[in-house]
Amino acid sequence: MENATLVIDMGTSTTRAGIGGDSEPMTTLSTVLGRPRASSSYSDEEINFFIGSNVYKNTSTYSIHYPMSGRSIKDFDDFATFLHTLVTGHLNTSPGGHPLLLTVSPTETQENREALLQIIFETFKFPAFYPASPNTLALYASGTTTGIVVDSGESGTYIMPIFESYSIPYYSERLDVGGRHVTDILRKALIQRGYSLRPGTERDVLSELKSQICYIAEDPTRVQDVPVKAFVTSDGLEIRLTSQAFLAPEVLFKPSMAGCSQKGTALLLADVLSRVDEDIRPALAQNIVLAGGSTLFPGYPERIERALEDTAASLNLNRSLNYSSFSNYSGGGNYRSGVRVVADSGRAGSIWVGGSIFASLSTFSQLYISRDEYEEEGTGILQLKMY
C-alpha cells in the first residue's frame, strides 16, 4: 500500500474508498458524519467522530451531519472531518504518503474547487491530487472512452456526453430528482395504506423495499393486473404493495410527481443526443452507460431503450453503426435503432472502479496536481492543468 493512490468516490449518500488498482473498494459506507453533542460527557482528548450508518444508532450522543448534497460539498468543515476519519480510521493510513483521486462533481463551482484544493494540500498534506469527474470514471469502468453516462444517485441524475475521454459539459443535463425522491413517495404510499414503521428501522426498511420490490414499468400507462408484492420487515411486519411498487420509481421519469418542473430522465437524454454534433451522435448512442444506485431498478435500462427507440429515426442514430458490436449484449432493445444501453450489474459502484483503473495507469503521475505545483502556482494550477 506504500505510496499507492487513494481512490475515494464521495457521493451524497454513499462513499466508496480504497486503493488504486484494486478490483473493489476497501470500505463502503454512508456519507454521514456524527459530531459529539455539546452536552456529551466526553473530554477534548476523548472526542471521536463517527462516520457511516452507525451514526444513526448514536443520535443521543452525536448530531448528524451530511457533508455532501447533490454530489457537491455542502460544508467544508464536515467534509474535512469526514475525510480525515475515513482515511485514518477506515483506510488505516495517513494522507501524507499517498496521492489522492477524489470524485468532484462536474457542476461544482470554481470557488469550491479552489477551496477543496487548499484543504487537500494545506490541511491534509497529500503529495498529489486528481479531481476526477464521476461520469468519466463510470465510462472507463465500462471499458470505453466514448458514450453518454447517466449517473443517477440519491439526490439527482446527471447526463454527460463524453467523446474520446473528453466531457462535453455544455450539452450535459442535470435532473434534481434521485433516489431520495423515490423513498419519499414510497414512504407516503405506506402511510396512506395504513402501515406504520418504527423510527429506528424506517430508513433500512424503505431501502430494502426499494431494492427488493420496486421496479420501472416499461409503459406505466399500460400496466394491468399488477401483482401483489409482499415484504416482511425485520420486526415481522408484512407489507403488501401493488402499483406502488412501480409508481414510486416512476418519479425518475416523471419528476412532476415530486413537484419538479424538469423533464424526466429519458426526455433529457434525448435532448442531449439531439444537441450533440451529428457526426458523433451514433457513437454516443451506442454506449449509454448507466451508473449509480438509482439505475438499479429492474426495467430501468429497458425504459431508456424504449424511449430512445421512439426518437431514433429523427435523430439519425442508425447510420454508420457496426451492428456486430451488439452481438454479445444480453439486454433488450432493437439494436438497429442505433440505441444500446450498457447496464453492468455492478454499476452502483462503477465510478469507484473507473477511478481505480484510472489511478493505476502508468500516465497517472503526469496528470495529477503535485504539491510542488500547487505551492508554485496556488489554486491557479486548476486552470493550467485541469482545463
Automatic annotation (TrEMBL):
Taxonomic source organism: Tritrichomonas foetus
Gene3D superfamilies: 3.30.420.40, Actin, Chain A, domain 4
InterPro entries: Actin, ATPase_NBD
Protein name per its UniProtKB record: Actin
Residue ranges of coiled coil: none
Gene this protein is translated from: act1
Assigned protein family: Belongs to the actin family.
Entries under Pfam families matching the protein: Actin
